Amino acid sequence: MRRDRRLSSRTVEHLLWSVENGVGYVTLNRPQRKNALTFDSYAELRDLFRDLRYAADVHAVVLAGAGDDFCSGGDVHEIIGPLTRMSAPELLAFTRMTGDVIRAMLAAPQPIIAAIDGACAGAGAMLALASDVRIGTERCAFAFLFVRVGLSGADMGACTLLPRVVGHGRAAELLLTGRALPANEALEWGLLSRVCVPEELRIEASSLASDLAQGPTFAHAMTKTMLRQEWAMDVDSAIEAEGQAQALCMQTRDFHRAFEAFSAKEKPRFEGG
User: For the chain, which end, N or C, has fewer CB atoms within 10 Å of the first or last residue's CB respectively?
Assistant: First the structure.
């Protein structure tokens, strides 16, 4: 698949988007509403992450919220209210669109780092869960709130993604009760990779994203693909698939650059491909 589009100049209306040194920054920008999602912001997130599959200038992504919160989920007045007046076909179109956001994040070849502060609830918790790495502040809290509004915990892939991160029993508890999971517990359960003070969150996330952006981008994309595809494989199939994936990576110039740098006792400089 060709990746020849440059997204640094891409315009967005309902989010903030920028690219710096190979890192794309996606910021949910409704701090006055704890970055609650609207129909428009859902659609824009879906389209942006789909476009990342073809981006030549983005090698890692940081997803964050403006202000003191990550995302409180779907906006009660702009989404929940209108949903109560929709027909069954309209409701299905909406739930498929929200699922497409998660699909697009999982299919994006770039590692996605979620920088999580404050509220991370409902659909916001799913955006974090669909990211590859989650860094949080000591005051952040996760809550899969679907049950609190009379819905099942089976939303946007929660019943398949969450058990793979925290285990079946813990996922069942969170999805059945909708309780808040504070940062220290999320770290213990593996939902967070690290916890920092709020003032250092963007620095931590940007530093990790920059390191990944300077790495072997084709190999990173392959790792992300195999992590997802191997969910449905038995061990023998997974080992064979990884053999094929690694053989492809061995044909890249980055693999040869690494060997040449090692031989010269230098640090490799990866350029992609």
Answer: N
